[in-house]
Write a structure and sequence with these properties.
Oligomer: single chain
CATH architecture: 3-Layer(aba) Sandwich
Structural class: alpha/beta
CATH topology: Rossmann fold
Radius of gyration: 16 Å
Helix content: 40-55%
Distance between the termini: 26 Å
Amino acid sequence: MKWIVLWMILPQFGWAATVLVLGDSLSAAYGIPAEQGWVALLTQEHKDVRFVNASVSGETTLGGRRRLPALLAQHRPQVVILELGGNDGLRGISPAQTEQNLAAMIEAALAAKAKVLLLGMKVPTNYGPKFAAMFEAVYRRLAQRYPVTLLPFFLEEVALDAELMQADGIHPNLKAQPLLAQRVWQALESLLP
């Protein structure tokens, strides 16, 4: 019992908040050293915030939906950053299914009294303009439906700059990580207690 009490009051003496990052390879530092990814950079820069990076390369919204309840129970975050959907789009999964999974995660986070920062994604235009538009609209609709903070396109100013991308053209390189960290922090800071 005393450990539970200690755990509940610990943020008052240590971390101001716990932030759970549930994402895919973009947050799991694919292709670069983990300690140089954007989540690690935020951890190093903001010592009063506890960042829990539960991101997995290749993760889909369905995988995140299945994992989130246990993560919420284990870490009890004040903020959940959802950076998922890109792999759904790349696999051609229906945007309606992606939206349903993201909505379920948002509802679970809000029910756990966590604020939500939703990182929007886009798919390459080679999937067709109709699919790309439907996919992008998912994030806007969710931000209208729920009390979440939306970063409309997580890779804004990065995705189209070859100097900031790895050779695969999908994953940001080392140079891009500080920019991503700064972008997320600007949206995240106001959500922290």
